[in-house]
Design brief:
Number of helices of chain C: 13
CATH superfamily of chain C: ABC transporter involved in vitamin B12 uptake, BtuC
CATH architecture of chain C: Orthogonal Bundle
Radius of gyration of chain A: 20 Å
Bound molecules: adenosine-5'-triphosphate, magnesium ion
Strand content of chain C: under 5%
CATH class of chain A: Mainly Alpha
Largest interface: A-C, 58 and 56 residues
Helix content of chain C: over 70%
Family (chain C): Belongs to the ABC-3 integral membrane protein family.
Number of domains of chain C: 1
CATH class of chain C: Mainly Alpha
Subcellular location (chain C): Cell membrane; Membrane
CATH topology of chain A: ABC transporter involved in vitamin B12 uptake, BtuC
Oligomer: heterotrimer
Membrane topology (chain C): Multi-pass membrane protein
CATH architecture of chain A: Orthogonal Bundle
Radius of gyration of chain C: 20 Å
Number of strands of chain C: 0
Pfam families (chain C): ABC-3
Chains: A mainly alpha (285), B alpha/beta (252), C mainly alpha (294)
Main location (chain C): membrane
Chain lengths: 285, 252, 294
Amino acid sequence: MIEFFQNLSFMKTAFLVGILIGGITPLIGVFIFARRLPHISESLSQMNLAGVAIGSTIGSAVPYLSGINPRIYGVIFALIGAFLVELLRKVFRDFSDMSIPIILSFGTGLGALFFSILHGFNADFFNYLFGSLIAVNQSDLNNTLIISFIVVIILLIFYRPLLLITFDAEYAQVTGIRKKWIDAIFMVLMALTISVSVQAVGVMLVTGMMTLPIATAIFIGKSFKSVIFLSIIFGEAAVLIGLVLSYYLSIATGGAIITFSLLCFLLVIGVKHIYRMSMRRHIQK
Amino acid sequence: MTIKTPVLDLENVSFSYDRKPVLEDINFGIEPGEFVGLVGPNGSGKTTLIKIILGLLKANHGEVRLFGQPLSKFKKLSWIGYVSQKSNSFNSGFPATVFEVVSMGLYSQMKFYKWFGKKERLKVWEALEKVGMEDYAKQNIGRLSGGQQQRVFIARALVRNPKLLILDEPTVGVDAKSENAFYDLIESMHKEKLAILLVSHDIGTITSKVDKVLCLNKRLHYHGDPKQFEMNRQEILTDAYGQHFELLEHHH
Amino acid sequence: MLQDILQVDFLRYAFLSGIMIGIICPVIGVFIVLRKMSLMADGMSHMALSGIAAGLALQRYLPFLYFINPFYIGMLFSVLGSFCIRPLMKLYPFYREFVIPIILASAIGLSVVFISLADAFNKDLFGYLFGSLITISHTDFLVVLIVLVIVLGFVILCYKPLLILTFDEEGSLVSKRGKQVTDILFTMIVALVVSVTMNIVGVLLVSAMMIIPVAKGMQLAKSFKQVFIYSIIFAEFDIIGGLVVSYQFNWSTGGTIVVLAFVLFMIVLLIKKTVQSISRSKPVSYSSDETVKF
Ligand SMILES: Nc1ncnc2c1ncn2[C@@H]1O[C@H](COP(=O)(O)OP(=O)(O)OP(=O)(O)O)[C@@H](O)[C@H]1O
Ligand SMILES: [Mg+2]
C-alpha cells in the first residue's frame, strides 16, 4: 500500500486521464447504444488503428510530415470507416450485418500491415492494441482534457436534437431537425472519443468501454437520464478499479478495465435474475 | 395573416417511389379548425401523402402550402403536430420515461442553453392530463401497451400547441373503450378550433364525426361532405377499393 | 519465390494449407453470410483468442498440463462463446445487435488478462493475432487437411438440412430436433474452421476470410452454385496473392491477405456499379437487379 502511495504522483496523470475517459466514453456509448450503432464504433476503432499505423508510416517516410501526430490520421480514418460502413450497408441491403466484419477486419488488417511495414510489432503496438494507461504522460493528459472538453461541449449543444433523432428519427425530422447534420456531428464525436480512449483501453477494447457500462446500466435505469448517470458511474468505477488492479497484478490496463466491467455486468444480471426469481416465489406464496 | 388562409393546401400533387406512381394529381385543402378524415385501402398512398405534407418526402409535381406558405419556406414547424402510423418508427427499447418522451415535443422549440424549467414541465403535465396519462409519467415507454403508447405520442404532439394535428391510423390495435375515449379526445380538440387530419380504416366512425371526407386510392376518389359520402358510399368505395370491397366490409 | 516454396518446409506447408483454407472458408462462409451469422463468426474468433490465452496461462501455472495444446482450448472457448450469444440476445430483446460487441470486448478483455498472466506479450502473440507463416508446421498442415475433409464431408452430407436451415429457418420442413442438431454441428464446424484459419491469417482476421470472398462472390454470381465457385476463386486469389506478397516484402501475413481481399472487393463493387449504370441507361435494365438474388 505504501508503495502505491509513493507511486501516486506518477499514477496521478494516469488517474486523471482515466477519470476523463471513464466519463466521456460511456456518455457517448449511451447514444451509440440507443442509436443501435455499436458495430460502427467497433469499426471506427479498428480504422483508427489503421489510421495511426498509416500516419506513423507517412511520418517516417516523409520527413516534413513527421510533425503531424498519428492520432490525427486516426480520427480521419475513423471517419472514413464510418462512411464505408454506411456505404456497404446500402450495397448489401439484405445482408447488411456483413458490412461490419468486413470493415472491422479491413481496419485491423490495414493496421497490422502498416505496423509490420514499420517493423513496429513491438511493445508500443501492444500498448496501442490493449491500452497502457499507466504509460500516459503530461501531454497525453492535456490532449485528453482538450478533446473531452470539446466532446462534452458539442454534446451539450446538440443534446436535444440528438436525443430526438435517437428516439424517433422520423418525428425528429418532422420537427425540423436535419438528420444528416446531426448524424455527421455524432460520427465526429464518436471518432474523437475513440481516439482518446484508445490510450486507456486500447483499440481492441474501446468498444467494450462503450458497451459494457451501458449494458449494465440499462438493467437498472428507467429513464434516459438515469441510464446516462449510471453508465458513467460504472465506467468510472471500471477505469479506476481496473487501473489499480492492473498496477497490482501487472495486467495490461485495458484487459483489467474490461474484465472488471464484465464482472460488474455479470453480477448485475445475476442479482437481477435472483431478485426476479425470489419475487416470483414470493407471489406464488 | 387573415383568418381565411387555409391551414393546408395541395395543388396537383403527384408522387412516385422510384418508378411506381403512388399519388396522382391530388388537390384538397383544410380550413382552420376543420376536421378531415382520410380513408383508403392498404397501400393507397395515405401515409405517403402525409409524409409529403410533412416534408419527409418531396412531391414530384405540384405544390404543398402550409398556412399559405410553400412547404420549402414554411418555418413554423411547431404549428404541426404529428402522430405516425403505429409509431413503428420509434425506438421501442429506448430507456425513456413517458414524461421524457412528451418533453421531447418541446425540444425542437428550445435553444440548447434554455433550461427545461417549471414552465415547460407544466406544459408537459397539461398535455399528459389531456390524454389521461398523467399516472404513467414515470413509466418506461417501452413497457406500455400499444394504445397507451399512442396516447403518449398524441400528448407529444399536443404539447407543442399545434394548429394542425395529423394522425396516421391512431386507433390501430386500440380496444373499443379506448377508441371511444380517443374519439372523445379528438372531438374536444376539434372544439378548441384545432384543424385535424385523421387517417383511418374505420369508415363508419369517420363519416359520423368529420367535417370532410377524403377517399384516396392513388387519386382522390371523393372529396367533400360526409353526408354526401354516406349517400353514395357503395359507389365511391367500389370505385376506390375495387370490386372486392363488399368482402372487406363484411369482415368488420 | 517458387524455389523457396519447394525447398523451405514451412513455406510449402503454409502454401498448401493456404490453398485448402481458400476452399474451407468460403464454403462455410456462404452459409454464415446467408444465415446472417457474420457477426457471430467474429465473436467466435475473438473467443478463440481468449481460449488460446487461457491455454497459455494454464501452461505457465500448471506445467503438468503441457500436453493440452492452447489451440484446443481456443476451439472450446469458441464453441462456448457461440452458445452464450443466444441467451444474451434474449436479455436485450430490443437491442440484439448489442450482444456481439459485448462478446467481442469481453473476449478480448479476458484474452488480455490471460496473456498478461501468461506473460506472453511477445512475437508469438502477433502470430496468433495477425497470422504468420513461420508457425505452420507439418502437424498444422495435417490438421488443415483433416478439417478440409470434415468440412466438405459435412457440407455434402448435410447439404439439404443446411439449405433448409438457411432459407427456411421458421418453416416446418424438417423436425425441430433435426434443425437443432444441424445447427449445433454447424456451429462446431465454424469453431473448427476458425481455429485452423487462425494460424495463417490470425484471430482478428479470421471472419474476414469467411466473409469477404463470399461478399465478392455474391456480387457476381447468378445462382447459388456460382456463389460457391466465385467465392472459392476469390478466396484462393486473396490467400495465395497475400502469402506471396507478404513473404516477398516481409509484411504481416494476415494483414496483407485481408487488405488485398478488401481492395479487390472494392474493385468488384466498382466494376459492378459501372456495368449496372451502363446497362441502366439502356432500356432493358430491371432484370439485372433481380437475378442476383437466389
Ligand atoms: N419506402 C417505400 N419505397 C417504395 N415503395 C413504397 C415505400 N413506402 C410505401 N411504398 C408503396 O407505396 C404505396 C403506398 O404506401 P402507403 O404506405 O402510402 O400506403 P397506406 O395508404 O398508408 O397503406 P396502409 O393503409 O397500409 O397504411 C404502397 O404500394 C407501398 O408499397
Ligand atoms: Mg399507412
